[in-house]
């Protein structure tokens, strides 16, 4: 008698935010349940960062312990997949799941770099994580060389977002700002906001940098740095801006996809610095 195993998707957002993704997966005949464990909250310092990683490890441990209940384990939050693979490798358990990390990204750490690299190798090289998804062929090559992870197990494909234009189109501009009267640069990972601040010297058009992890400063009265905007509050800024800027730090690392697609869906001008992996999947015309 066959034992039913539940196919699950672990996400760190609300379940309804990945409904279209789940609907797409269901077309292959499999049924997936969404397990929502939000951990990507606003980052207010060291304590919130520690709490975030504690949640990643504790949630992953729960699914590791009960892994025999599940078949496929897809993780929209990559750390859930990676840490389950880490636990499996550490304890050398029998492989029982197909584990997939969606939108995988690896960036060397300035602090504890060697420890982080060792950890990543323990996650990937035990044979427990079956597939990685990345939105860049170039980046797939980089990851394969870095960790000896077979390219046959790297899924290269763009990803999509829900079109929320109609939902947010009538939001009023933020206080003290006019509609289409400012530009926005938003994001956490792999952003070079210092470059953007320097580039804004002498410009008179207002720029708002939204990032709760950026520690930089500016004396330019036309540049505002906001660390208190996250979640749905960001859409008031995005839907009313003139343009969205994505200043990429390391052009070989995948990042900025969600912001780019949101800007496109909101009918905004989107400026991306070069080089960037975004040019592989979403941008065909390049102006030099």
Describe the protein.
With about 290 residues, the protein is an alpha/beta fold. Helix content is about 35%, strand content about 15%. The chain contains ten helices and eleven strands. The chain has helices at about 20-25, 45-65, 80-90, 115-125, 135-145, 165-170, 195-200, 235-240, 255-265, 280, and strands at about 5-10, 30-35, 70-75, 100, 130-135, 155, 185, 205-210, 225, 245, 270. The strands form two sheets. It has a six-stranded parallel beta sheet, with helices on both faces. A five-stranded parallel beta sheet has the order 9-8-7-10-11, with helices on one face. Strand 1, helix 1 and strand 2 (about 30-35) form a beta-alpha-beta unit. Helix 2 packs across helix 3. The longest helix has 20 residues, at about 45-65. The protein starts with 5 loop residues before the first strand and ends in a 7-residue tail after the last helix.
Residue runs with pLDDT of under 50 for 5 or more positions: none
Average pLDDT level: 91
Distance between the termini: 64 Å
**Number of helices, where a helix is a run of at least 4 consecutive DSSP H or I residues:** 10
Please state roughly what percent of the residues sit in beta strands, choosing from under 5%, 5-15%, 15-25%, 25-35%, 35-45% or over 45%.
15-25%
The H/E string reads EHEHEHEHEHEHEHEEHEHEH
Provide the spatial order of strands within the biggest beta sheet: 2-1-3-4-5-6
Helix content: 25-40%
Structural class: alpha/beta
Name the shape in a single word.
globular
Number of strands: 11
How would you sum up the major sheet? Answer: 6 strands, parallel
Q: What is the rounded Rg?
A: 20 Å
């Amino acid at each position: 008698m066959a034992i039913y195993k539940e196919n699950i998707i672990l996400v760190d957002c609300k379940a309804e935010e990945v409904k279209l993704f789940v609907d797409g997966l269901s077309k292959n005949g499999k049924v997936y349940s969404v397990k929502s464990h939000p951990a990507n909250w606003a980052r207010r310092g060291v304590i919130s960062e520690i709490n975030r990683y504690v949640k990643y490890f504790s949630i992953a441990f729960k699914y590791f312990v009960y892994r025999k209940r599940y078949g496929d384990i897809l993780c929209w939050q990559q750390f859930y997949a990676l840490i389950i693979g880490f636990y499996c490798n550490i304890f050398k358990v029998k492989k029982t799941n197909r584990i997939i990390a969606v939108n995988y990204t690896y960036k060397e750490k300035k602090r504890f770099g060697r420890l982080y690299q060792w950890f990543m190798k323990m996650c990937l090289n035990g044979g427990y994580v079956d597939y990685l998804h990345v939105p860049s062929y170039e980046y797939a090559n980089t990851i394969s060389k870095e960790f000896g992870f077979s390219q046959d197990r790297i899924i290269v494909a763009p990803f999509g977002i829900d079109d929320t234009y109609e939902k947010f189109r009538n939001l009023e501009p933020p206080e003290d700002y006019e509609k289409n009267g400012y530009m926005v640069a938003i994001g956490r990972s792999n952003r070079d906001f210092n470059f953007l601040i320097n580039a804004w010297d002498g410009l008179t058009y207002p720029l708002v940098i939204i990032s709760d992890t950026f520690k930089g400063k500016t004396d330019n009265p036309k540049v505002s740095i906001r660390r208190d905007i996250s979640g749905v509050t960001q859409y008031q800024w995005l839907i009313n801006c003139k343009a969205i800027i994505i200043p990429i730090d390391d052009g070989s690392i995948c990042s900025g996809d969600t912001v780019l697609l949101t800007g496109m869906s909101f009918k905004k001008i989107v400026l991306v610095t070069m080089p960037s992996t975004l040019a592989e999947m979403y941008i065909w015309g390049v102006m030099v």
